[in-house]
Amino acid sequence: MSSHAFAVSVPLDDVFARSLPELGVPHEAQEAPDPQLLVLNEPLAAELGLDPAALREPEGVRFLIGRSVPEGAHPVAQAYAGHQFGGYSPRLGDGRALLLGELRGPDGALRDVHLKGSGRTPFSRGGDGQAALAPMLREYVVSEAMHALGVPTTRSLAVVATGRGVQREEVLPGAVLTRVARSHLRVGTFQYVRALGDDDLLRRLVDHAIGRHHPGAAEDERPALALFRGVVAAQASLVAQWMLVGFVHGVMNTDNVTISGETIDYGPCAFMDAFDPAALFSSIDHGGRYAYGNQPVVAEWNLARFAETLLPLIDDDQDKAVELAVEALGGFRTAYSRAWLDGMRAKLGLPDGLADDVVQPLAEDLLALMQPSPVDHTSFYRALAEQGRGDGTPARDLFLDLAGFDAWAERWAAAGPDPDAMDRVNPVYVPRNHLVEEALEAATSGDLAPLGRLLEAVTQPFVVREGMERYAEPAPADFGRYRTFCGT
Description:
Elements: H1 5-8, E1 12-13, H2 15-19, E2 24-26, E3 36-40, H3 42-47, H4 52-56, H5 58-64, E4 76-78, E5 82-84, E6 87-89, E7 97-104, E8 110-116, H6 133-149, E9 155-167, E10 171-181, H7 187-196, H8 199-213, H9 223-245, E11 247-248, E12 270-271, H10 295-314, H11 318-329, H12 331-347, H13 356-370, H14 379-388, H15 402-414, H16 419-425, H17 433-444, H18 449-458
Antiparallel strand pairs: 1-7, 2-4, 3-9, 5-6, 7-8, 8-10, 9-10, 11-12
Helix pairs in contact: 6-17, 6-18, 7-10, 9-10, 9-11, 9-12, 10-11, 13-15, 14-16, 17-18
């Protein structure tokens, strides 16, 4: 594998590979016949201290697909287990992915540089290790939209077409996504180690996770329990933010639950148009396990699985360890409810001093009114702000139950909402499903212009711009029921 001048200038470290060699298999990315850079996240590159112009050079593109690796980096395919739709798989791992290494940006923060679609690994099982272009572009668009919305997320640095066809139901163009994350430590990583029964390795993994994400836990009398509390808080905040923006993850398996509290894996994800607790887009979620309204419950279940992995380090007495873990897990519902209610207070423009027992029924009664109409989850709050300014009745016009909405709106107005504050937190643009599909279809055919326009909208989601009206509108009636696929 080459390490030319460009690659040497990227200071990639091998912190994970060195610290936890049992959890990574050294591996090389597959060569690409004709690598072509399709989209590059220049603001993120600059944030990481990388030169966007250098990344566009042939050697830079080779770095982005893992074929030009800097000295000091030792790429590995990571090992992890996971509960997938409730069923436990003891050995999953990076079947089509590779951790190139870690990069310390100008801000001092350490971030993983990671590939998806980089070829077969020892964890591939029957898979080909490849990724099709459209799912990689989907992750790029949706993760960057989430970042712009202020939701913790992995980021997308680049998508490179490989020049290789990928066999699915038909032959599709292949691509590699270069992903950046605070780390790729997951609940599934801990499940893998716990199943090995190696308490020393588990302790090293806990220490690594604490140092990377929850350093305050190191000073606690019970560091593993403090780590668990930190992850519970991070996940409660994260899932509340998903609910507030109408995001449906679609595949909340334990191997997709990060210790950092970042959103990871944008496979069958989507944003709701109409508010609906049963909103579900994944083609493989037949029972609705990961529907929009189930996300907080599933998150708590996943955290219970995390707690089980930590019991040997929480206390030598298993009963005592379970008692402490259950108590800590109990903090999830409180933290989630607090984050969700604070978020709804902001979305409705309600003053900070307004009592929770006024805010909560306002929020819950509104959602009960929205569901049967149905009301678009994103545009409603902007319309409500306009109505709050006295600009007609754009929000009222969305409801079937006009009397019900009028009674609710009277209570809301009496609470003293601030429409300008609402516009600062309620987006105009999210990655609408019909627009994402339109952009991906065009890009697969070689036209990147629709993708560029969509990115322009969703990466500045709070700013109304002339000529972008269609990006703020729900799907047309003939769009039909939307289904997404995992992309493998």
